[in-house]
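Researcher: Quick test of sequence recovery. Tokens follow.
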């Protein structure tokens, strides 16, 4: 399996998909552009098995239904690396998420490769192969694609198809394959990729700098409008309103076009096209009852000394659990995750799935006073209150 087949006509696509239907799994990747659009523009689809390697040109093919049927086949596992963006593309195209899936970035964490390892580093670690990086900034919408571009794109599945069986075997040997089911179900869930105009305001960068509920209500309205407008015209959010401009509008709350036009960073074309709409949204929040406005978010910063001490000890316990399970602590949780857990976050990822198995259950038991930490022969030991070693 050396040179990839380039699939740019209907007969070749149909023949390829018929062949791949016999495979229990396929490696899958995409190349896309999103710099000038809200929705990603699919430019290339790469697929591979242990015997087949191909690059499919969606820009030349009007009908991708054979590929869609293949990706929706529940009997064929789709293997991706950091595949959320790839899956999002197919969700927006087809209205469904390819399933079932296996994400090697997620799986790598359970094999001790660290959290969110890149594809190149993973292939180096698993196969000892160093990948080229020369085409990472390629405009994949341009045609024709050069042979070296196709080889570069194909490498994203060529080696994925070689690494996956080894990783799966290693997970089975450790008894950890089933631990990944919850993570993969989340990747297969359409709700993961469905736009959320109502909740998107909570992801505005710098939101915690606003301290007044009325200001947050303005951001809530502006962010909802921006999301819906970006979807409608298929343009990036930042082309309509950048986050910092939205925050400034919330602070100043202009009431006329002249004042609006003076807001730094707000494009003149935006004022001309959408000025009255923005003013209407800002004015509308004045009619909201105070209790209907969002509450200010907690400020970041240092914890109080008592809680800081608890987080420090929790970090030590996390490292202990990671060590005995041969996994990177960062793959299980960050310090911020531990801060939230110590603060009583019942929705913490540490309390679900494999993270709970490896460390979360131990942390919860310690926080609830069910266990204590001791030192024995220079090493940390976790023991139940009854005194027997855990």
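Model:
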């Amino acid at each position: 399996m050396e040179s990839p087949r380039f699939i740019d006509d209907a007969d070749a696509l149909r023949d390829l998909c018929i062949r791949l239907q016999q495979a229990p799994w396929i490696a899958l990747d995409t190349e896309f552009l999103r710099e000038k659009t809200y929705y990603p523009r699919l430019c290339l689809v790469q697929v591979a098995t242990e015997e087949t390697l191909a690059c499919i040109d969606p820009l030349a093919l009007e009908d991708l239904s054979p590929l869609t049927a293949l990706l929706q086949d529940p009997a064929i596992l789709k293997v991706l690396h950091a595949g959320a963006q790839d899956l999002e593309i197919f969700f927006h195209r087809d209205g469904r998420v390819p399933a079932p899936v296996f994400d090697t970035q997620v799986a790598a964490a359970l094999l001790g490769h660290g959290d969110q390892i890149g594809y190149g580093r993973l292939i180096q670690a698993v196969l000892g192969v160093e990948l080229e990086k020369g085409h990472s900034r390629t405009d994949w919408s341009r045609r024709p694609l050069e042979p070296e571009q196709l080889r570069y794109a194909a490498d994203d599945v060529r080696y994925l198809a070689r690494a996956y069986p080894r990783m799966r075997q290693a997970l089975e040997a450790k008894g950890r394959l089933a631990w990944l089911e919850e993570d993969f179900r989340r990747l297969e869930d359409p709700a993961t990729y469905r736009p959320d105009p109502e909740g998107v305001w909570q992801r505005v960068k710098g939101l915690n700098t606003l301290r007044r509920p009325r200001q947050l209500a303005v951001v809530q309205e502006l962010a909802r409008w921006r999301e819906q407008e970006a979807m409608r015209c298929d343009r990036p959010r930042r082309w309509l309103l950048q986050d910092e401009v939205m925050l400034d509008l919330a602070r100043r709350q202009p009431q006329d076009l002249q004042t609006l036009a003076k807001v730094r960073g707000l494009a003149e074309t935006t004022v001309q096209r959408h000025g009255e709409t923005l003013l209407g949204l800002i004015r509308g929040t004045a009619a909201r009852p105070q209790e209907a406005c969002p509450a200010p978010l907690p400020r970041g910063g240092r914890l109080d000394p008592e809680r800081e001490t608890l987080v420090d000890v929790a970090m030590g316990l996390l490292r202990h659990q990671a060590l005995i399970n041969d996994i990177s602590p960062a793959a299980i949780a960050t310090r911020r995750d531990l801060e939230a857990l110590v603060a009583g976050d019942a929705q913490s990822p540490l309390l679900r799935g494999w993270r709970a198995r490896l460390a979360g259950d131990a942390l919860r038991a310690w926080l609830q006073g069910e266990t204590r930490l001791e030192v024995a022969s220079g090493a940390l030991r976790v023991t139940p209150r009854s005194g027997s070693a855990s």
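DSSP finds 17 helices and eight strands in the chain.
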